[in-house]
Amino acid sequence: MQSDTPGAKKYFNRVPKQWDALYSHENPLKYLINKWLRKGLYWRYQLVFEQCGTIPEAKVLDIGCGTGRYSIEFAKRGAGRIVGIDFAPSMVDFSREIARQMEVADKCEFICGDFMTHQFEEPFDIILAVGVFDYVKDPGPMFKKIAQLKPRKFLASFPKFTLVWGTQRAIRYYWIKKCPIYNYTEEKLTNLYREAGFSDFQIISYEKGFFGIATTK
Fold first, then answer.
1. What single DSSP character describes residue 152?
2. How far is CA 92 from the centre of its chain?
3. Is-contact 150 216, C-beta < 8 A?
4. CB under 8 Å, gap of 24 or more: what pairs does 159-167 form?
5. Alpha helices (runs of H) in the chain, residue ranges in sequence order
6. What's the DSSP call for residue 157?
7. Predicted local confidence at residue 166, as pLDDT
8. What is the CATH topology of the domain spanning 6-215?
């Protein structure tokens, strides 16, 4: 995440429990309701792990890790090391506690910081940015930094504007929560991938957005 998104940082720092409830199974009824209402969110979650395939001992970077549910699932599936970074302190604290409860804290490191300014001293096999680019005004520099890290696979999600969903999100996030949302088109994404140096990528369109899968040799 970039540092030009104070509205997003303020919003996400307030809502770790509400955000985590979308992924947790602790309340079965609420989980089923969310799974029905937010099909795209769960489809993305499933797609990430389908695309990653065998991951034992893989090193994973989870950009905008939120409450750490993706990071923790990677650890549970056998990844060797997972680094999650998020700019919201309460999200990072929540991630650390959930990782401890799930007994994978030894594999997970959660950093409170800005992806664009943090210096990573190690390579990563997989880089994940799900639900991140929604809040990034200028995604080009992020794409280029990710490409420079040379992950074996880069997985990311992007929102698209639709009349009903896009308008609703604009009202709910921008006007009420003062948290801007940025939408994408397939053409814009194609240019972002190419300009960053990704030559092997796929953009999957679904009802409310896009999912990008890029690989490097």
1. S
2. 14
3. yes
4. 159/133, 159/134, 159/183, 159/184, 159/208, 159/209, 160/184, 160/185, 160/205, 160/208, 160/209, 160/210, 162/207, 162/208, 165/207, 165/208
5. 6-14, 16-20, 28-37, 39-52, 69-76, 89-101, 140-148, 163-169, 186-196
6. E
7. 63
8. Rossmann fold (3.40.50)
Rounded Cα–Cα distance for residues 40 and 51 (Å): 16
Predicted confidence (pLDDT) per residue in 97-150, tens digit: 999 999 999 999 999 999 999 999 999 999 999 999 999 999 999 999 999 999
State whether residue 24 is helix, strand or coil: coil
Given the structure tokens 């995604």, which residue do they identify? 139
User: pLDDT tens digits, residue range 35-89?
Assistant: 545 566 788 999 999 999 888 899 999 999 999 999 999 999 999 999 999 999 9
DSSP designation for 183? -
* Mean of pLDDT over the chain: 85
- DSSP assignment string, 83-126: EEEES-HHHHHHHHHHHHHTT-TTTEEEEES-TTTPPP-S--SE
Tokens representing 146?
Answer: 């990710």
For 68, the enclosing helix (H) or strand (E) is none
Residue 178's contacts (CB-CB under 8 Å, 6 or more residues apart) are: 7, 10, 11
State residue 23's pLDDT score: 61
- Residue written as tokens 């030009």? 4
